[in-house]
């Protein structure tokens, strides 16, 4: 009896297979857990206003933020383009002009 396995979330390949509790894609070598097809719903990251953020969004900083190891701060209203969502406490990875690579908490930003 063959189960209907989900396509690979990374490359959309239909040739996924099961190995214990993992699903594996033979084309791109991506591995994820069987309950991983709901991970997008669980991992929804929201801004300060409750809007769901996604990779590539543009955001604005809503509070002056001190930058560890720097004498200057990120000012309210600073616009950031093309964000990337990551796991962890600081769940937004981005590049801010004048500061460089930065990780931000979603509670201090709003979606444009």
SSE layout and pairings?
Blueprint: E1 17-19, E2 22-24, E3 31-33, H1 39-42, E4 45-46, E5 52-53, E6 59-61, E7 65-66, E8 73-74, E9 79-80, E10 84-85, E11 92-96, E12 100-104, E13 109-111
Antiparallel strand pairs: 1-2, 2-3, 4-5, 6-9, 6-13, 7-8, 10-11, 11-12
Give structural notes.
By secondary structure, the protein is mainly beta. It has 2 domains: 11-40, no CATH class; 58-111, SH3 type barrels (Roll). Helix content is 4%, strand content 33%. It is built from 1 helix and 13 strands. It has one helix at residues 39-42, and strands at 17-19, 22-24, 31-33, 45-46, 52-53, 59-61, 65-66, 73-74, 79-80, 84-85, 92-96, 100-104, 109-111. The chain has a 3-stranded antiparallel β-sheet with strand order 1-2-3, with no helix packed on it. A 3-stranded antiparallel β-sheet has the order 9-6-13, with no helix packed on it. Strands 10-11-12 form a 3-stranded antiparallel β-sheet, with no helix packed on it. The protein is elongated. Residues 36-41 have low confidence and may be disordered.
The chain-level structural class is mainly beta
Mean pLDDT level: 86
CATH superfamily label of the largest domain: SH3 Domains
Q: Which residues sit in consecutive blocks of at least 5 with pLDDT less than 50? A: 36-41
Number of domains: 2
Helix-strand sequence: EEEHEEEEEEEEEE
What distance lies between the first and last C-alpha atoms, to the nearest angstrom? 49 Å
Integer-rounded radius of gyration: 18 Å
Q: Give the second-level CATH assignment, the architecture of the largest domain.
A: Roll
Return the CATH topology of the largest domain: SH3 type barrels
Instruction: Tell the overall outline.
Output: elongated
Strand order of the largest sheet: 1-2-3
The amount of helix comes to under 10%
The total of beta strands comes to 13
Question: What proportion strand?
Answer: 25-35%
CATH level-1 class of the largest domain: Mainly Beta
Tally of individual helices: 1
């Amino acid at each position: 009896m063959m189960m209907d396995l989900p396509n690979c979330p990374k490359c959309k390949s239909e040739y996924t297979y099961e190995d214990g509790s993992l699903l594996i894609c033979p084309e791109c070598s991506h591995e994820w857990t069987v309950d991983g097809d709901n991970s997008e719903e669980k991992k929804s990251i929201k801004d300060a206003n409750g809007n769901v953020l996604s990779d590539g969004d543009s955001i604005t900083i809503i509070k002056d933020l001190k930058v560890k190891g720097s004498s200057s701060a990120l000012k309210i209203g600073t616009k950031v383009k093309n964000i990337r969502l990551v796991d962890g406490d600081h769940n937004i990875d981005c590049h801010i002009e004048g500061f460089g690579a930065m990780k931000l908490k979603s509670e201090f930003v709003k979606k444009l």
